[in-house]
Amino acid sequence: MIDNKQKYSALIKAEAKRLGFISCGISRAGFLEEEAPRLEKWLNENRHGKMQYMENHFDKRLDPTLLVDGAKSVISLLLNYYPEEKQVSDTFKISKYAYGQDYHFVIKERLKGLLYSINEHIGEVGGRAFVDSAPVLDKAWAAKSGLGWIGKNSNLLSKQVGSFFFIAELIVDIELEYDHAVTDHCGSCTACIDACPTQAIIQPYVVDGSKCISYFTIELKENIPQEMKGSFADWAFGCDVCQDVCPWNRFSKPHREPLFNPHPDLLGFSKKDWEEITEDTFRAVFKNSAVKRTKFEGLKRNIDFLKAP
């Protein structure tokens, strides 16, 4: 006989698939014991640089029951963003996740839809949706729910779909059937460590966030240190190098989400186009894009930094 936990879990996974998520896994909500000392050490060694927000809500990051009253289950979801087409070669590059509309809005709508379906089919379920802007260790939860393993580049990797996907969660107050973690399949590969332009992967599975190109081009609000000049490999917003070289990403397939398609002009931008970008063009091309996080001035700063001295 199928118990309710099994039935509800199957229903949630079917609904997640219908809503376009490529994977859905479920784990028991509770304190992340293994991650606690790791996070503490990482923060104490100042690997987060000027990202002060990483120090906030330490307890909540490790325990979802502090975020949602009576939390019993964490439903982790993956949404593919791997693009069909990429930027022209020899140009200033932006991370593929920022080609289309800001993922926060796209995913939040789907999570609301999933929570609505859960309430409709299961009954009144209390829960909250999270998309990487809240203190939730999303990669840890996704790994716990069997959606992949955390690789040497500290990204979640999947044998089936690689790593070009967003991670989101629903934390809910009902017990469900729980999935199991999968094994690590990085083996002896060091492709990501060898390829990182700024040597930000300081040892396997540990990234110094304050050395990462994404940190310098997105998070850092002041001037980029001059000693980094010449080491950004033309990345103007974010960086995909450790994902591009990962052997598991040969299994990445293009997404089917029209909202993630880029503005028609973006992929053809030459270096000259980037250097001459106006605020009006910036607004038009990146109207609802994650690139707006840097604002026009921030993007200009990054491009000026990349230009030959």
Explained architecture:
The chain is of the alpha+beta class and 309 residues long. It has two domains: 154 residues, NADH Oxidase, CATH 3.40.109; 103 residues, no CATH class. 31% of the residues lie in helices and 13% in strands. Strand 5 and strand 6 form a beta hairpin. The longest helix has 20 residues. Keywords: 4Fe-4S, Cobalamin, Cobalt, Cytoplasm, Iron, Iron-sulfur, Metal-binding, Oxidoreductase, Queuosine biosynthesis, tRNA processing. One of its GO terms (biological process) is tRNA queuosine(34) biosynthetic process. It holds the Pfam family Fer4_16. It is found in: Cytoplasm.
Strand coverage percent: 5-15%
| Backbone shape | globular
Instruction: Write the H/E string, N to C.
Output: HEHHEEHEHEEEHEEHEHHHH
Structural class: alpha+beta
Q: What is the fold-level CATH name, i.e. the topology of the largest domain?
A: NADH Oxidase
Distance between the termini: 71 Å
State the CATH class of the largest domain: Alpha Beta
Secondary structure tally, helices: 11
CATH architecture of the largest domain: 3-Layer(aba) Sandwich
The total beta strand count reads: 10
The figure for the number of domains is 2
Largest sheet descriptor: 4 strands, antiparallel
The helix fraction, in percent, is: 25-40%
The residue ranges in which pLDDT falls below 50 over 5 or more consecutive positions are none
Q: Average pLDDT across residues?
A: 94
Q: Report the C-alpha radius of gyration, rounded.
A: 20 Å
The neighbouring-strand order within the major sheet is: 1-2-7-4
Keywords: 4Fe-4S, Cobalamin, Cobalt, Cytoplasm, Iron, Iron-sulfur, Metal-binding, Oxidoreductase, Queuosine biosynthesis, tRNA processing
Family: Belongs to the QueG family.
Pfam families: Fer4_16, QueG_DUF1730
Binding site for [4Fe-4S] cluster 2: 196, 212, 239, 242
